[in-house]
Design a protein that fits this description.
Elements lengths: L1 H8 L26 H4 L9 H22 L4 E3 L4 H6 L13 E4 L1 H4 L3 H9 L6 E4 L5 E4 L6 E4 L2
Length: about 150
């Protein structure tokens, strides 16, 4: 029916992106399964456009593939503006401030710390992996070489 309308009117109705998938970011999501509210700064500030592009890349290259492999993925922290990052004691050069890092709420995901780290290591784009004594896990898209650390 839509095709007939297009033929009759000569107009084209574009509903989705060129690839046939919705364009991201959109008003509510950075990807099909990850909402802006999950990844934007917890202080409520406006996420800059360049940071939003990084968050789309984080979803495409880390979060969505991880979700396909393990199921539930729960984000504890995504983008942090510089003032919020300082307020919570984040690293001065944190990848979170570039929108390139995720801290996972591993206990809510129902997976062991070791298994989550192993799955994250399988993702080539992830070059920063951190392990925390509270069971938390960090992944980021920094430039190579890969860095793995533990704060135990």
């Amino acid at each position: 029916m839509l095709r007939k309308w297009e033929q009759r009117t000569g107009a084209t109705l574009k509903i989705e992106g060129e690839s046939g998938k919705p364009d991201y970011p959109n008003a509510t999501h950075y990807s099909e399964n990850f909402k802006k509210s999950e990844l934007d700064c917890k202080c409520g500030c406006k996420t800059p456009a360049d940071i939003q592009k990084n968050l789309v890349r984080v979803c495409d290259t880390m979060l969505e593939p991880l979700r396909l492999r393990i199921g539930t993925v729960v984000v504890l922290s995504g983008y942090r503006c510089p003032s919020y990052n300082a307020k919570i004691g984040g690293a001065k050069s944190s990848q979170h401030m570039q929108g390139k890092a995720i801290d996972f709420n591993r206990p809510a995901m129902g997976i062991s710390q070791e298994d989550l780290v192993a799955e994250i290591k399988r993702i080539d784009a992830v070059n920063g992996i951190g392990v925390y004594p509270n069971g938390g896990v960090h992944g980021d898209l920094r430039r190579p070489p890969r860095v793995v650390w533990s704060s135990f």
